[in-house]
Amino acid sequence: MKYESYQSSLNDAKILIVEDEVIIAMALEDSVHDFGYLVAGRATTGQRAIDLAMETQPDLALIDIRLDGDMDGIEAAEKISGRLNIPVIFLTAYSDEETLSRAIRTNPYGYLIKPIRPRELYTTIETAIYKHRAFVAEKARVACLSAVTSKLENPVEQVKASLNGLVSSIQKGTMDLDDVEVILHAQVDELERVRADLRELNDTIFQA
């Protein structure tokens, strides 16, 4: 069944599916396609999930908590999130407190109980990708603000120290007007650079 009414606003996103039950994995892949996303790949074990994630660089991973092999979905999710910083949504038929507690400690972006309803899956994926992209964008904006602020601090202090020294020299009569003119021109140039940095800071703060 196609869910053509779903119109993903993030349909450039790639989704990694990690599920060891073939029928469920196929249903998830169909749903992901129907929602307008790309499927980065399918994995049935934790190690394969990690390898595929590193290879395809997905935007989000749907990971079943219970997987075949030595590594369960929670451990795989920890490794994938740690290496790639991508959001994870857990899938499980089990909702016992111990499993839920382990899963929550990995800071997932969602937790869906099987059988998974397509509309719930769609909403959870959209929300997770949007929140993660917003988080990454905000982190980048803060880093930019910090970098610009650091650029401003040193020149401003230099101009301040230079002008204080200039005033002191004038008061003591140890500097002629030609020297004053040279220093003032240099400080004007430095202040122009500071003004350019301030414009950059302003654009960063108020950019859409």
State the share of residues found in helices, binned by percent.
Answer: 55-70%
- Considering the protein shown, what is the CATH homologous superfamily of the largest domain? Response regulator
**Major sheet details:** 5 strands, parallel
Q: Strand order across the biggest sheet?
A: 2-1-3-4-5
H/E topology pattern: EHEHEHEHEHH
What features would you describe in this structure?
There is one protein chain. The chain has 208 residues and is α/β, with parallel strands linked by helices. It has two domains: 14-136, Rossmann fold; 138-206. It is built from six helices and five strands; from the N terminus they run E-H-E-H-E-H-E-H-E-H-H. The chain has helices at 22-34, 46-56, 73-84, 97-104, 118-172, 177-206; strands at residues 14-18, 38-43, 60-64, 88-92, 110-113. It has a five-stranded parallel sheet, with helices on both faces. Strand 4, helix 4 and strand 5 form a beta-alpha-beta unit. Helix 2 packs parallel to helix 3 (73-84) and helix 5 (118-172) runs antiparallel to helix 6 (177-206). It is elongated, with a radius of gyration of 28 Å. The two termini are 39 Å apart. The model is unreliable at 1-8 (pLDDT under 50).
